[in-house]
Structures are given as structure tokens and as C-alpha cells.
## 1
Amino acid sequence: MVIKGVSCAGARRLAVHLMRTDTNERAEVKELDGVAAEDLRGALLEMEAVAAGTRCTKPFYHASINTPAHERLTDEQRAYAIDRLAAELGLTGQAHVVVLHQKEGREHCHIVWSRIDLDRMAAISDSHNYRKHEIVARELEREFGHERVQGAHVERDGKERPERTPSHAEMLQAERTGLSPKQVKEQVTELWRQNDTGQTFAVALWEAGYVLARGDRRDYVVIDPAGGTHSLARRVEGARVKDIRERMSDLESTRLPSIADAKQIQRARQERDAERDLDQRKSQDSTQAHDWTNRGGMVAQQRSAMDWVEQAAEHKKARVEQTDPKRERSERSDETTEALNKRRQELLRQFGNESEEAMRDPAEHDRGRSRSR
């Protein structure tokens, strides 16, 4: 059994997360206790309103009880586990809601308590909550006969500390950014092993898309390309805080950006990359349009060539017709006939003229013919 929990804020955000059905096959509200509201969102808003009269910035304690698919809790066991966890955390009698999720055939429940003690109008302490989770989990495993899960805080029995599992906040961040803690850890660890100094490591992180920053509560944090925040010590496999400080001793932490500045740098990076991608797409579109223009020109040239070929064919046909021997003989024959007709008409005119002259003066006509001979 694995129990997780953390203090948090944001009634509306919690309500949306608890009733999500895109990441869960089923989300069912099982209990609303200590509130007047009859729905989950109203109950959380009511608890949040109570905290408005205090200095508490995180009025909720959000916990989850997780078991393997083959060790599903009955309703009685679930209620008993919730009461036992509330007692260990000092939240017995506090207003709370219970939501049951089913995901990939496995059930797990979420409990959100109000941390505000109405008698004192102050928040109930959440100190040593990880240890308290494990105490309850080990006890419930024995009582329910479930398989034991090795924890990091209690009942170690000389065993090595197990690898830390992602927190709820880290899981939410992974859903938001699309980068899981495991992916970031693999990449950052590889860069850590390839660089021997803090300065070269910081440069390698930058080239890989990350930004090294100074933490608010930790020495160093890493901001991933999507703006997620990661503790450097938790993202370097096998390295302790002491190892991190020794390696980074050549780097002045005061010269590193703050978390807020590093996130702003990553946002600017994303905007620049988006603009670059847009320019590339525009360039590709322009190239494609140029190609289509060239293709259009080629088509026009082809059409022009086809027209020219057709014109040439017509011209050739005309020339063939003009140079056709039969056509030439026919045309020549027509020309000869016309010339002969003209000559015949001239002769007839001349003969006619001579006849008229002979009829007028036969002697003169004879003399003229003699002279012409």
C-alpha cells in the first residue's frame, strides 16, 4: 500500500482534478462530511471560505491511498483506512471529502481535509507527514494481509532507501508539461556524468533545452523546456546534496537566474522557437508556391509549344498543298488556257479590224499587207 499527501490550496482546481474522467475510467464522490454543500465543488469552496479568516495559505490536506489491482479495498476497509490516516495526521473530526477513482482496473481513493481548526482558527500542522503516511501504510498492510511495500522512513530493517517516487505535485506538473520526472532525470543524469565542472554542466543543460537556476529553498533547480521546476539533487541519479555542491563550487550561484527569471527565459525561448518554426513553414510554403509557379510556367510553355506545333502543322499542310504536283499542273493548265484565250481574242480583234479596212478600201488594204510582208 502506498499513501501520499501534501498541503495545498485552490478549491476550484482540486474539484476539477478530482472529477476528471479523461485520465480516469471512473470518478465517484463517496463522502461529503462536515460541510453544508451537497456537491464536491461547493464543499471545497466552503472549506476554502473558512480559511479566509486565517493566515493559512494552504487550507487543504490532500491525500491518496493506493493499492494494487489485486488488493482492492472494501468499503469498510477504505473507511477504516481513512479514519486511521486522519488520526495519525491530527485531522480527526475535520470536514473532508472522499473521491474514488478507477484507472486501468485499479481503484484508489482521494481524501481532502480542511486543515483549519475552528476552535483556534489556525491551521493544523503537517510536519513529518511522509513518516506518518508510512506508519499507517505498514499497519494497514498487516491488518489487511496485503503485500508489504518498502518505505524510506519507517521499518527499514537495514535495507537500502528505496528510490523516491514522484510526488503528487510532480505528477500534476508532468501532466501539464508532458515531461515525466523519469525522463528529466535520465537526461540530466547523463549530462551530469559527461561534465566535470559546474560551468560546463550549466552550458550542457542550456544546450539541451534546460535552464539552471538558483532555488528558493534549494541550492539549485532545473527549469525544463516546458517551464517545469525540478530540484537538481533529485534529478541526478546517485548524487547527494554534498556531491552537487562540490561539483558546482566553480559556479557563482548569485549569477544564476531566479526561478521566475528562468521560467521567463524558457517562455521567450518557446516564443522564439515558435517564430522560427513559423518562418520555416512560411519559407516552405513560399518554396512550394514557387514550385507551383514554375510548374504553371512549364504548363504555359507546354501549351504554347503545342499551339506552335499546331500552327506549324497547319503551315506545313498549306505548303504541301501549294507544292502538290497535281495542284501545280492544274494551276499551270489554267494559266495556259487563260493565256491562249487572251491571244485568241487579240487575233480575232486584229482580224476583225483588217476585215473592216478591206471592206472600206480593198486597194489600200492590199498595199498595207504588201508593206507588212
## 2
Amino acid sequence: MKLVFFGGSNFSVFVLEELKLHNIMPEFIITTPDKPKGRKLVLAPTLVKVWAKENGIEVIDPSSLKKDNSDFISKLSALNSRLFLVASYGKIIPQEILDIPQKGTLNVHPSLLPKLRGASPIKSAILQENETGVSIMLLDAEMDHGPILAEKKIISWENNNPPYEKDLAEMLGHKGGQMLAKIIPDWLNDKLEIKEQNHEQATFCGKIEKEDGQINLEDNPEKNLRKIRAYHEWPVAFYFIERNGKKIRVNIKSASIKDGKLVLEKIIPEGKKEMLYDDFLRGQK
């Protein structure tokens, strides 16, 4: 099978790892360009680019997928791929590219479509749902709009105990990869039917911004816990305290709810290393 894979995040890597376990390896991987990270803004590759190089797969990170990047589109066409695969790529793929492979382009989407179409389905599930799963869909030019090949609920949780984003991404990525590995042979041999989404029931989730992580410790405990766990890795939930007339930012790394109250467990005060919240309080006294 000549496969091309589009991806970028940790979710994408979990999908790739599962495909590898099932002896399904893409011949070519597309990801997004390196981005500056950290305080020194050093250019860093996507996790998918790192994985591709570790596994000896050719990888390219085009800045544009539009028609003006004719060299890139010509290279994709010359691969004669039967199928393209997408998992958390981070960009809208033009119809011109989706139509290149003979059997179209399949997407692993970490939500129960048509719920949570858009840029942040994993974080948004933690913020506002009590269950989520994985959908395998045939991509069209609209965002998460295409027909469904398979869908499965993976996890549900009580209101006061949502998963952390990293753990949920890993769970959904592996399950999505398993589903995709099972589906690919049948799809290539025309043994699968597709089902249109109910577009009237669609919900959408937007891009998360850095400032979305700020919380008020006096807010509803469940609302705050959901933010802490959804934003565990990025943008990180935080609040401010006053010290010597200055505002000090405190990042929250873990928390829980006990007796109806939010209990902070681990934090990172500005300029310091991660510590237990209780130790931080003792230092304040």
C-alpha cells in the first residue's frame, strides 16, 4: 500500500505507532513547518517529523498547500498513492490534494462526530463533555464535514474526574490507529459503506489561546478542574498572586476535587521549579 500521512501532534504519533504495530507504514509523511518554542524561541520540529526521521520515512513540511506550491502538489501526484491518511494535521487540506489518491483521504478525528468539529476536540471534550471517542471519516474540503466510515465511543467520565489531556490524547490516538488499521484493507477493497453526518447536530471547537488558561480560584470547582486537566500541557492553567507589590504567575500542573472543593496538588510558581502546593503555602507563610 502506498500511503501518505499528514499529521503533527502527539495524537498523530500515537496513531502512527499503532499503524506500525499493524505493519502499516506510510511511504511519505507531511507535517507543518518547525516553530519557535521555549523562552529562547528555538525552532523545533513537530513530533511527527521527529517520529518520521526515527523510522526512516521521508518527511516534508510545506508552508503552503495551495495551488501556488505546484512543486509540492506535483510531488504528491507522482507518488501514485492509493490513499492519504490524516490525523491532527492542523491545516485545512484543499480538495485538489484530497482528490489525488485513488481511494481518497481518510481522517482520524478524536471526537464523536458531528460533535466537536474543529481545532481542539480533545481539550474541548474535557472542558465540556462527559464522554468522547474516535471517528474515521472521508475528508472533504469543509472542516470535519465528510461521511463516516467508523465511529466508537472510547471513554466516559464523571463530572468531577475528567482525564488529563495528555492521557486522553494517548488513549484516543492508539484506539484511532487500531480502528484505522482495521479499516484500511476493507476500504481499499470497496467493502465499506459510508454514512453521512447529521450536520444539524454539529458542534464546533475553536483554537485555544494562551490567555484561555487563566482561572479564578473562586470559580466553580468543576469548571476549574476541567481547565486544569484540559490545559495540562498547553497553554497550562494559571492564576496570579500578589507578592511584594508584584503579580506572580502560578501554573497549575495537577488538581482534584475533594468534598466539593478544588484541591491544588502540584504547581510551578513563576521562576521556580514544580513543587507540591502544600509546600508552596508553607513558603508563603
## 3
Amino acid sequence: MSASEAHSHDDFRHVLDRLKLLLENLPRSLPEKSLQELRFACFLNFSLDPDILEKTGCEVAALSEHLKAVFGWQARTTGDDIVPFTRTW
């Protein structure tokens, strides 16, 4: 049974009503952030940290350490293990 089949017609109607409410109340504009304010700004012109690379001795491990510093452990240990990368500017 698929996820959509597990819900009753009334449940699905509630989901559609909620979606309609959210869509009707979207803001007219989004706040603009400077490149320095963006969470992912550290990836612009990215290069591996030589100290971390020396400590780990491996480019993959150094990149992993950098990603953990940016996204935190929770990104890897909760949800579906997928961290979406989207363009924010």
C-alpha cells in the first residue's frame, strides 16, 4: 500500500485544505541576505582546510569534517539522510 492509499478521503481533504491555506498566505517577497549572511557562504570559492587535511590525511575525511561543521551531526543522523543543496541568491 502506498502512502497515498493509507489516508482516507477526509485525511487527504485536510492536507489539500492546509496546502491551499499555506499557498494563499505566501509572503509577497522574501528577505534578501548578503553573501556573508548565507549559511552556505563558506562554500563559495571553497578549498579544503590544510590543517584539517593534515590532521585527517585524507581529502574525503577533510571534506566530511567541513560538512559536519556546516550542517551539524543532525543532518546525517535524522530524516532521510539527504541534505538538499539549493541556490539561495
## 4
Amino acid sequence: MAAAVLAYGAAGIAGTVAHYTALILLVQLGGAEPVAASTFGAAVGAVVNYWLNHRFTFRSTVPHRRAFIRFMVVAVAGMIVNAATLFAAVHLLGLHYLPGQVAATGVAFVGTYELNRRWTF
């Protein structure tokens, strides 16, 4: 169990790097609104996470046509939590988008691990 959590975390780091890269580029270079940019970045990160989690974290034998759909359901739920947390941090609390995103990432990570472990893979 501990090894799976560590592997999930490592895959999460790779997905988070993809997510944050898209977020920062869209906000800093593209002038995008942070919540929209973060949602796009989360979708990019989800693709990275799916592949790494299916292949390495859970070593799943579940066919992609089933696992991918389930993973995307969990990912969309995570994106909603992420967007709501970031919206609250930026628009209600007045925080800069990056600390808000760090908080949103932590909140989303906690919920998605168990859903993916128990249901997706």
C-alpha cells in the first residue's frame, strides 16, 4: 500500500509538472484567467497521470476502454474540486494564483487517490 501511494505521488508529480507548466504559460504568456488555465492544465496532467498510473502505479490489467472512462470521471471530479478551490483562493480570498493552485492540488490529490485505487484500476 505504501509503495502504491509513493508511485501514485510520483505519477502525480509528473502530471502536476505538466499541469503547472500549462497553467503558468497560459497565464503569464497568454493572459488567460487562472481558473480556466488551471482547468486546461489539469486536463493535460490527467492524460500524463492516466498513462503512468495504469502502467506503473497500479499495474492494471483493466482494459483501457473501461479504465480510461473511469479515470476521466475521477479526473473531472478532481478538476471541479481544483477549479472550485482555486476560484475561492483567487477570487474570494485574493491570493495569487500559484499558492492557490498549490492548495487546490493538495485537496484534489487526497480525494482522487482512493477513487482511482478502488474503482478505476
